[in-house]
Amino acid sequence: MRLARKPKISRVRKARQDRALGTVDTILRATAHVLVRDGYDKASTNRIAERAGVSIGSIYQYFPNKEALFGALVERHIEEMRGVLVSTFADVLSKPFPEAVRAFVLAMIRAHAVDPALHRVLIEQLPRVGSLPLARVRDVEADAVTLVKTYLAHLAESTSLVLPKDLDVAAFLAVTTVEAATHKAVLHERDLLARPSFVDELVDMVVRYLLRDEAAEKPRAPTATATKISAPRRRRAS
Amino acid sequence: MRLARKPKISRVRKARQDRALGTVDTILRATAHVLVRDGYDKASTNRIAERAGVSIGSIYQYFPNKEALFGALVERHIEEMRGVLVSTFADVLSKPFPEAVRAFVLAMIRAHAVDPALHRVLIEQLPRVGSLPLARVRDVEADAVTLVKTYLAHLAESTSLVLPKDLDVAAFLAVTTVEAATHKAVLHERDLLARPSFVDELVDMVVRYLLRDEAAEKPRAPTATATKISAPRRRRAS
Amino acid sequence: MRLARKPKISRVRKARQDRALGTVDTILRATAHVLVRDGYDKASTNRIAERAGVSIGSIYQYFPNKEALFGALVERHIEEMRGVLVSTFADVLSKPFPEAVRAFVLAMIRAHAVDPALHRVLIEQLPRVGSLPLARVRDVEADAVTLVKTYLAHLAESTSLVLPKDLDVAAFLAVTTVEAATHKAVLHERDLLARPSFVDELVDMVVRYLLRDEAAEKPRAPTATATKISAPRRRRAS
Amino acid sequence: MRLARKPKISRVRKARQDRALGTVDTILRATAHVLVRDGYDKASTNRIAERAGVSIGSIYQYFPNKEALFGALVERHIEEMRGVLVSTFADVLSKPFPEAVRAFVLAMIRAHAVDPALHRVLIEQLPRVGSLPLARVRDVEADAVTLVKTYLAHLAESTSLVLPKDLDVAAFLAVTTVEAATHKAVLHERDLLARPSFVDELVDMVVRYLLRDEAAEKPRAPTATATKISAPRRRRAS
DNA sequence: GATGAATGAGGGTTCATTCAT
DNA sequence: TATGAATGAACCCTCATTCAT
Description:
The structure is a homotetramer. The first copy, chain A, is mainly alpha-helical. Chain A folds into 2 domains: about 50 residues, Arc Repressor Mutant, subunit A (Orthogonal Bundle), CATH 1.10.10; about 150 residues, Orthogonal Bundle (Tetracycline Repressor, domain 2). Helix content of chain A is about 70%, strand content about 0%. Chain A has 12 helices and no strands. The longest helix of chain A has 27 residues. The first copy, chain A, starts with 8 loop residues before the first helix and ends with a helix. Chains in contact: A-B, A-D, B-C, C-D. The structure holds a DNA duplex.
């Protein structure tokens, strides 16, 4: 007979560790932990409360329901990722093109590295029926697309670079490509990700795509470095 | 004991419609329908049975449990997509390079167009904890990567085309890019997808990436295939 | 996906073996087999039908419902046991007392040996809520008690044997003791049952109880061995 | 979601009655009640919860599953019976033999009288497939057999009493006989049980069996204990 | 008769949520 | 505020029974 015994010793200790943190934070951490450890299906509110070292009632003190709880976690995770992205974007804009792309790629990788395990459960297991996780991710991606498009439009106007004509599509492809490659690599192809060529190739791909070279027509254009240099030069030469 | 069952006219009519189809097929269709209409969390076996116009027992006559039911649906969907892909791949191999890429892209779009709504729920909502759904999708993608890599290796040997050095990464990027762009466009960016430039740009991106032109340096290198010609011109002269 | 495949080859073969038997008999055998092999909880009508090599419909052709099916099996088993008992009882009546007891004990053991495995499931697992198994067993035991009582009464009248005064209780105790000891030994104490002393002791117990010795009054009655000998001698001494 | 719950007056009142008792106790009582009233097959967890005046969830708060629930009930019942038995056994050991037997028989009757109706369902209807109910009963009986055997061995050594040679069988028969007779009488033959002769006869049977009188052969053998004396003497003088 | 696909009431169990303390 | 026992709708699944063929 299993009576409700509570040898919650370890639980209590764990909870104490987080004592400094607010209860909300403790709950959110526990949510992430349980989600990663046990998967979405097993992540019941009771289990989360247990892990957090608080009573189930306390969860409902701060979150109206389970969806809101997961929503807050998603929001928080997305914001962390966005933070990494944004802090990088800042100086991306001022860099010469190929370097900007590389910075963008690295930022994306860094963003995905914030908490890959959590990211994975969030993306793969959370029910996306409501408007929760995936929708928020899409929002972020949409933001990125807009940003990139703006950046490209700016480039096109202020430099002589030759860019794809349909900037909507171009920005979409650039962002989608970098995000998808990064995402898949971080989650499922760690060995590919580890190769130096991974970033190089990904950057190369995006640069080659976005940057159309006029150089072909002007064979002698001496470019110091491969990618970086050629690009600028290419623009509306004629 | 089964007493007078309530008429449930629509249910009966629905059932009669599908009478010609096997029960298994009816159930699978209902599963897809409910999944798309109500989302995974609401797709209970009882709801599916109701939609199928069969009793809950009939589902368990053909599927040992719910997971197997969804598994069968995933399998079926994946096979349909794979069918589209494979039937296209056949002649891809014999085509000159850029056309091969275009064929590949179109095949991927067509594959995703088989049942986009279902594809979406399957990808986004099915719990990927078991081994079924996502794993199967990854299998297919892994197959695609292998195929592409083989194809590229073959190209590199039998032609004078210059390809990326790290073919593992190259194949991964090519497949991931095309799949991701296609997937996202089909599911969430129908207006981008509708533009003629979408395919053009996607093809362009992949071709520009995979194909490095030596022609610039070796103007006379006359390559028979169309492949060489278009791309070549692009690269940096110096 | 588990479709209703029917590689019922072995099933069919099994069924053929019983082809000579009537369908009812085949079903009853299958019922016993499944009951013994899988236990009551797993003995579903479908499983029984499968084992019998007939369709589930055929069972309902011959038995109105599951209870009736098990009822028939119980009836049959009880009758077999009763047959063994009765055929023994016939000559018990004419035997001198201690031998009669021994014959009775042996008959009981033989009766329980008819199909111990089946007997066990029937006794231990069949729901006795209705009036089915246990009730029938009790009927048989009640019959036995009556028989024994009659026998004892007859003995008391026609001989000078001294018997317990309360023949109701005496008969009850005698039958209960022999049945219980036999039952438990056959089902759970095979090693005790195998000892020669088992039967000897059981017979001894009953004889000592039923037969009160006049010897006490006749101190010199020299009995060679303790139990065995004293008893016989006791017989119609007067 | 829990909307306005229906009054269910009796349920509430019943619940209030037991409010003092722990929920576990209430559930266990309800289980026993339903088991006795409706039989095992009808004793669904929902029915038990209803009877207990608690929600079905409360059952699962304290018992991991249905088997554990019944297991706890069996355990509890067995312990109660064992308690009665043990408290009696204490002074059995110090008593002269026939009185010890009588005490044993009375203890067994008292033990079976703890809750005969429950005892009956537990013994007759609980599926003994798992390891719980029947196994536990057998454990108790095995303990009794061991105890009795030890007691007899002690007697044989420390007194001049003549006992059966095979003490394994003797102890088995003694315990089985007393248990079976008691069990059947309590459950199905209340009128026999009510007769004073019932206990007398049962005690008589066991004593006669276990105790072999040397007195016959050795008239003068004066045995201190009451045992020897009573037995012989018992026979009808006339 | 025989078949077996289909039926659906009902069983055990889970877990988000409430509320008296 | 915090607690956690209690709640009960709903889920997945089983299986005795039916009936059109």
